[in-house]
Design brief:
It contains 9 helices and 12 strands. β6 and β7 form a beta hairpin.
């Protein structure tokens, strides 16, 4: 393993390095002077089977898990994230990785939250698997990203409508979440924490309303149908941060102007 002392470069492996968050995290790590190992199927590594993980982790001090899976299936999400986490832990232990940074969603571990969304149940299982392992883990819990509102436009379509749940969140830009994750990943081993780190945006917003604003700003022709979820954790504040958290500065309207 490479030393991370003063004047020496850390070597960080990013899982899901070609995804929406992983791409950004890898870029921020390079800006901070780290050597980045991009771990994805495109690079010949399969976290689900474990193939290629030992080779990818050679000389790595920290692994950052930015894995994503596009699914609404609880069974598929739990199986994927649990299996991948166990494979990563085993490879990390064999190769001498010092720490794992796992990115999850605010409150995904809470049963009243993940009972409503299969993907969140997968993230809860992922966190549990990492915490049960032998390698120290820092869990970074992020609020939903503004980019999620755009994704929601295409998930449930009932022509000519896009049905989007009226989830109450405190969203932020994915770019700011990535910078936060990268900062934690490059902390020296002596100062790194195993406690949770939480980041959220500057305002509580309705994700359906954000999706509607994105659709209008970008010339979309679909009509956004807001689906109320007032009696679930998605609509009654269960997705909001509790206790101490870092506040990302960029407001939604500023992000939308900058990305349109």
């Amino acid at each position: 393993m490479e030393s991370t002392g003063e004047g020496e470069r850390s070597k960080v492996a990013v899982l899901g390095a070609t995804g929406q968050l992983g791409t950004r995290v890898a870029a921020h790590l390079r800006e901070r002077g780290s050597d980045v190992v991009e771990v994805s199927r495109r690079q010949g590594t399969d976290v689900y089977s474990g193939e290629g993980l030992d080779a990818a982790f050679g000389g790595v001090s920290t692994v950052v898990d930015c894995l994503n899976l596009e699914t609404l299936s609880r069974r598929r999400a739990v199986d994927f994230f649990t299996t991948a986490a166990r494979n990563v832990l085993a490879a990390a232990q064999r190769t001498g990785v010092s720490r794992i940074v796992c990115v999850t969603i605010i409150n995904a571990r809470e049963p009243e939250v993940h009972r409503w969304l299969g993907y969140y149940a997968g993230k809860a299982a992922q966190e549990q698997a990492y915490r049960a392992g032998p390698v120290p883990v820092t869990v970074v819990a992020s609020a939903q990203w503004y980019e999620l509102a755009e994704t929601l436009l295409s998930q449930i379509r009932i022509s000519p409508f896009s049905a989007v749940p009226g989830m109450r969140s405190q969203p932020l830009a994915a770019e700011e979440a990535a910078a936060f994750v990268a900062d934690l990943a490059v902390e020296p081993d002596g100062t790194a924490t195993s406690d949770d780190a939480v980041i959220a945006g500057p305002e509580v917003r309705d994700m359906a309303e954000l999706a509607r604003a994105i659709n209008q700003r970008r010339g979309g022709r679909r009509k956004v149908l807001r689906v109320p979820v007032p009696f679930s954790a998605l609509g009654n504040g269960g997705l909001l941060p509790q206790g101490d958290f870092t506040t990302a500065p960029t407001r939604f309207e500023d992000w939308l102007r900058a990305t349109s």
